[in-house]
Amino acid sequence: MIEFNKAPFTGREIAYMQEAMNGHKLCGDGPFTKKCHAFLTERFGAAAAFLTTSCTHALEMAALLAGVGPGDEVILPSYTFCSTADAFVQRGATLVFTDIRPDTMNLDEKKIEAAITPRTKAIAVVDYAGIACEMEPIREIANHYHLTIVEDAAQGFGASYKGKPLGMLGDFGCFSFHETKNISMGEGGALLLPDLSHREAAEIIREKGTDRSRFFRGQVDKYTWVDYGSSYLPSDLGAAYLYAQLEVCDEINADRMRTWNHYDEALRPLAEKGLLDVPCIPEGCVHNAHMYYIKAKDLAERTALIAHLKANNVQAVFHYIPLHSAPAGRKYGRFSGADEFTTKESERLVRLPLYYGLTEEDSETVIRAVRSFYKA
Question: What domains can you pick out in the chain, each with its CATH number?
Answer without folding.
Answer: 13-248 (3.40.640.10), 250-375 (3.90.1150.10)
